[in-house]
Amino acid sequence: MGVDDVREHGLANGLAVLTREVRTAPIVTFFVWYRVGARNEPAGMSGASHWVEHMMFKRTERLAPGDIGRMVEGVGGTFNAFTYEDATAYHETLPVEHVDLALAIESDRMANAVFDPGDVESERTVIISEREGNEASPMFLLMEALEAEAFRVHPYGHGVIGSKADLRAMSRDDLFEHYRRYYGPNNAVVVMVGDIAADDALARVERSFGGLPAIEPPPPMAVREPRQRAARRVEVRHPGPFPMLALCHHVPERAHADYAALLVLNALLSGPPSGPFGGGGTLHTSRLYRRFVASGLAAAVHADVGSNIDPALHRILVVLKPGGAPDPVEAAVLDEVRRLHDEAPGEDELARVIRQTRAKRAIALESVTAQAVQLGMLEMCAGWRRALTLADDMQRVTPADVQRAARTYLCEPQRVTGWFLPAAGPGAAAGNGAPARRRAAGARAVSG
After folding, report:
1. How far apart are CA 102 and CA 94, in angstroms?
2. pLDDT exceeds cutoff 50 at 1
3. Which CATH architecture has domain 6-209?
């Protein structure tokens, strides 16, 4: 993705627009990203952003439940939405001749969602059921407990889907006010990638969105998590098939100057991510795979680093084999962390993981939808131009930078250790391969 590939525009009502022309196929993906997620939810409102996402598929002044699916799929397109800590996004990918359909849908629900009381109650049942389904996952239970311990003040500690107590207590008016506070052109970013010229794309966005009034600027999220000064531990005992360890450390926000070094550090441990929300499995050449899986010590292992507006967590996740002993596994993980402190990685190892990162990134960004996701997610947390510099930023990381990052952030006072330990009772499925994030349904998001 070159510097000249992405064009940035702004409408008079404050809507930001990013366009990229990609002529590989006659399709266009259209995203609207709103700057609202779990971090914007006050006490008593956990899960509100995700619930609002659900309501956007119900009624507007012009659309009835099910209309969006029928219209988009009727022309051969796809659609979806997701909510995560920092944002909520809606998207359609369609044949280029039908792109105006996406603009009509998104401009309508930006301003005209109805929040019918009956729809609110039906979605309350759906979301509580979704949460109860998550509670069958040992990984969800572990990460919910761990992140609540890691973030005692910041809303990152309450998760995207929200607590049952809040989901039961929130009213229709609470949700509608959340929508009105955050859904408006001056709190949104349109990302349009595909077989359409930038000038044409901008003209279409102007026609569909230019007449929408700006909203009152949302209140800034001023809460900051106090610095953790002593190690913390949590244990979750619940029916399940095998123990799991999550060893986490507080790390800075995505825009921080040390973030590239943390990405390289994580690639050494586990491998590069396949997309902006992490994931992608664990490479067999990585340190953690060789130490835990290839040796037979554990069934699966993974590491990732949060990419957020505010400071997040670096996480090492280990799934033990049934009956596996926790103590040797935790000792071995701490040994790998100490190794990062004590020894700077060799130049050859560093060069290898950077090559792997560049290759995986190129493969991951083949589709127009993946390119739009990367641009939008980075714009939400740190600015879209970081998509242009990521490879060069990592190339500049030195062995000493990696060692310094490990000593600075992967240290005991900033550590939160979590264990899931099976209790007597029926087993619960925990998945296989790389453990999924608590904040994710297939990715780092809770999908509607």
Report:
1. 8
2. no
3. 2-Layer Sandwich (3.30)
- Per-residue pLDDT tens over the stretch 175-222: 999 999 999 999 999 999 999 999 999 999 999 999 999 999 999 998
Q: Measured between alpha carbons, how far is 50 from 82 in angstroms, rounded to an integer?
A: 8
Torsions phi, psi for 158 (to 5 deg): -105, 0
Q: Is the pLDDT of residue 71 over 60?
A: yes
Instruction: Give the count of beta carbons closer than 10 Å to the beta carbon of residue 432.
Output: 9
Domain(s) of CATH 3.30.830.10: residues in the chain: 6-209, 232-434
Burial letters 408-426, b for 16+ CB under 10 A, else e: ebbeeebbbbbbbbbeeee
Q: Is there a contact between 14 and 213 (Cβ–Cβ < 8 Å)?
A: no
Mean pLDDT of the chain, nearest integer: 92
Ramachandran region, residue 250 (left: φ > 0; alpha: ψ -120 to 50; beta: rest): beta
Torsion of Cα atoms, 235 then 237 then 239 then 242, to 10°: 40
Which residues are 60's β-sheet partners?
113
Q: Is the pLDDT of residue 432 over 80?
A: no
Question: What span, in angstroms and rounded, lies between the C-alpha atoms of 95 and 101?
Answer: 10
Tokens of 309: 């507006």
Helix (H, G, I), strand (E, B) or coil at 274: coil
Q: Residue with structure tokens 């949060």?
A: 306
Tokens of 88: 């909520």
In 3D space, the residue among 79, 81, 55 whose CA is nearest the CA of residue 69 turns out to be 79
Longest dimension (CA), the chain: 63
Question: 3-class SS at 191?
Answer: strand
Do residues 309 and 220 lie in contact, with contact meaning Cβ atoms separated by under 8 Å?
no
Q: Tell me the torsion sign for CA atoms 141, 142, 143, 148.
A: positive
What is the pLDDT, as a whole number, of residue 279? Answer: 54
Tokens of 163: 């607590």
Strands 232-239 and 415-423, sheet pairing: parallel
* R_g (Cα) of the chain, nearest Å: 22
Residue type, 36: V
Is 3.30.830.10 the CATH classification of the domain at 232-434? yes
DSSP 134: H
